[in-house]
């Protein structure tokens, strides 16, 4: 039987309803695996590599992800709090978020071409100097989330709400937006719309 706390390499594993809160999952190689209904609150995943891993209905709050690698990782129906991608040992990410609640996360300086944030709630989070070319934010609700000096070219915000993106500070060429939410692009200007 695989023991994630002691084995260094794990492949094709399913971790179901396991409590990893405050556990040391450091310097591990985990691939082609699933975490379902797991609690990773304050877990230490530093220096670990997650490749082709799915997190489904997990609590991923305040994890220590220093020097971790996230390659082709999908988060579905997860609560994600305090994730800071700039602390990972990479700048390019292939991530998918579906129906997740994302709170106080920092995506600054990450390269996330074609990242998927589908039907998520993103609150109090930061996208600064973030490469988000051809990304998909469809159906996502934003609250108090900053986009600054980010490359959003060819991204879609169809059905997304609550975003505030200053087109003077971000590259939004060929983006797709929905009406009336597209009016959020004008919030940085001192104008009245009637």
Give your account of this protein's structure.
It is built from no helices and 17 strands. The chain has 2 domains: 13-84, Pectate Lyase C-like (3 Solenoid), CATH 2.160.20; 91-194, E3 ubiquitin-protein ligase SopA (Pectate Lyase C-like, 3 Solenoid). The chain has 194 residues and is mainly β. The strands form 4 sheets. Strands 1, 2, 3, 4, 6, 7, 9 and 11 form an 8-stranded parallel β-sheet that branches. It has a 5-stranded parallel β-sheet with strand order 5-8-10-12-14, with no helix packed on it. It has a two-stranded parallel sheet with strand order 13-15. The mean pLDDT is 93. It has strands spanning 9-11, 14-16, 29-36, 49-56, 59-61, 69-71, 73-76, 79-81, 95-98, 101-103, 116-118, 121-123, 126-128, 141-143, 146-148, 156-157, 176-177.
What is the beta-strand fraction?
25-35%
Say what the CATH topology of the largest domain is: Pectate Lyase C-like
Q: How many helices does DSSP assign? A: 0
The H-and-E topology, N to C, reads as EEEEEEEEEEEEEEEEE
Give average pLDDT, whole number: 93
Shape: elongated
Taking Cα atoms only, what radius of gyration do you get, to the nearest Å?
17 Å
Briefly characterize the structure:
The protein is mainly β and 194 residues long. It has no helices and 17 strands.
Descriptive terms for the model:
194 residues; 2 domains; mainly beta; eight-stranded parallel beta sheet; five-stranded parallel beta sheet
């Amino acid at each position: 039987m695989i023991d994630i706390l002691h084995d260094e390499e794990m492949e094709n594993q399913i971790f179901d309803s396991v409590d990893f809160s405050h556990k040391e999952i450091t310097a591990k190689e985990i691939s082609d695996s699933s975490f379902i209904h797991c609690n990773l609150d304050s877990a230490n995943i530093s220096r670990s590599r997650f490749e082709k891993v799915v997190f489904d209905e997990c609590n991923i709050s305040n994890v220590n992800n220093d020097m971790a690698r996230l390659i082709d990782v999908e988060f579905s129906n997860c609560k994600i709090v305090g994730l800071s991608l700039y602390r990972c040992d990479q700048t390019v990410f292939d991530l998918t978020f579906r129906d997740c609640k994302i709170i106080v996360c920092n995506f600054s300086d990450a390269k996330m071409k074609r990242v998927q944030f589908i039907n998520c709630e993103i609150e109090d989070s930061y996208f600064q100097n973030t490469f988000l070319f051809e990304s998909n934010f469809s159906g996502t609700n934003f609250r108090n989330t900053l986009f600054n000096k980010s490359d959003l070219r060819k991204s879609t915000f169809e059905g997304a709400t609550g975003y505030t993106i200053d087109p003077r500070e971000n590259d939004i060429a060929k983006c797709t937006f929905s009406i009336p939410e597209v009016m959020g692009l004008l919030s940085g200007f001192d104008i009245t719309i009637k």
